[in-house]
Amino acid sequence: EVRLVESGGGLVQPGGSLRLSCAVSGLTVSSYDMSWARQAPGKGLERVSSINWSGRRTYYADFVKGRFTISRDNAKNALYLQMNSLEPEDTAIYYCAAGVGQVVTRAYGYWGQGTQVTVSS
Hints:
This protein is mainly β. The chain has strands spanning 3-7, 10-12, 18-25, 34-39, 45-51, 58-60, 68-73, 78-83, 92-98, 110-111, 115-119.
C-alpha cells in the first residue's frame, strides 16, 4: 500500500517559517516526480513546488519563489518543503503527491491526506 503522510503544519505568524515533511512508504521517492500542492478555503488545488525523480529539476510557483524550498531525502524516503516568510495568503491545506509534476490533479498519482497551514497573527 502506498502511503504519503504529511506533517509539520500548524499556526504561524506572518513572516514566520514552517517545514513540512512527507513520509512515504510503498514507493521510492527517487523513482518518482514529487510535488507539493495546496488548496485554500473555497479555492482549487494549485501546484506549489515539484522535484523530478532524479532531483535535477525543480519547479516553484511564482507566488512562492524565493520563499519556499523543496527537497528530498532518498535515504529517509521523504519529501520536504521549507516555507519561509509566510503570508496569510499561504493559508491552505498542503498536500504531498507522488507521480505528480507538471499536471497537478488528484486524478493522477498518489496523494497524502494533507496538513493544515494557517498564517495569522
